[in-house]
């Protein structure tokens, strides 16, 4: 296989795979949650570039000329779309606004530049690229994309780091699983781009095939996680506690104690804490208070966050079930799901955090204590 055939095969295959991934994602998730952003990340910055590369190799000159402005402008939308995806994933109150249009300025500039170039200059540019080098506009495009990487990835990681703990405290285990993979995806994408940039510095023409292969890998990971951890709507929209707390008067101590007592009674009587999808929003709705008041009351009166409060109840239930296991003969591994935990590892981690020991050690200590009492 010649080098031109390699470029043609890789780009054509990448187009088909990425379009299929986007279609599968949208059909399976019905445009819910952050999946519309995910589909845009897959298609918008990538497919025009691959169409340009493939048509150039096939000698479809008119189509190549038509795709040239899109290829060297839409590729600057990848990092802005990743940023918006991170914003949407870790800030449920976020909505795209006019000020966000600032992120598409590089795209507009490159689009205008290529439309002002004559057809002869465009053809000369394409022929020059076929020789294995880039024109000044291609080099400028590469510099802009590199600057975007250096600016947006730190923005994304700082934003996720600042919001990760707050979001985790407000979501159920099931809801958190939808978000947990996003930082890993960003790390994967950043690592792949480091590889791409190193290879580009060594041999610039790797941008015609290596990026495509690595993009398919990253986008496959994105689609897989979007499907495995689908969007689950909460009973109420998650509110930004930090924003509201500065403008809304805090409830007094007596009111907060009443809210905590009401929440505790409701949880004890209904055992709703055993539900895997239990969230701050759901409990707040059930007891008739706002999320902010419920969260503030738990933090102030009980000196713990919402899920520490819930998990302590789950662990008490787990202790009761461990005692029952002695008579039934079942193993400890069989009870975690019944106690509201989605995974064995989470159950063991929370149990040790609450009690200071593992479930097995607690069971042995209970048996010894029981025997000594007799």
Structure write-up:
Helix 3 runs antiparallel to helix 4. This protein has three domains: 226 residues, Rhopdopsin 7-helix transmembrane proteins, CATH 1.20.1070; 70 residues, no CATH class; 64 residues. It is elongated and about 95 Å long. It is mainly α. The chain contains 17 helices and no strands.
Which structural traits does this protein have?
374 residues; mainly alpha; Rhopdopsin 7-helix transmembrane proteins; 3 domains; 17 helices; 0% strand; elongated
Q: What class do helices, strands and sheet pairing give?
A: mainly alpha
Percentage of β-strand residues: under 5%
| Proportion of helical residues | over 70%
Q: Would you tell me which CATH topology of the largest domain applies?
A: Rhopdopsin 7-helix transmembrane proteins
Using the alpha-carbon principal axes, give the shape: elongated
Number of domains: 3
CATH class of the largest domain: Mainly Alpha
Residue runs with pLDDT of under 50 for 5 or more positions:
232-248
Count of strand segments: 0
Largest sheet: none
Q: Cα-atom Rg, whole angstroms?
A: 27 Å
- How does CATH name the architecture of the largest domain? Up-down Bundle
Order of helices and strands: HHHHHHHHHHHHHHHHH
Question: Whole-Å distance between the termini?
Answer: 81 Å
How many H/I helical runs?
A: 17
- The overall pLDDT, averaged over residues, is 82
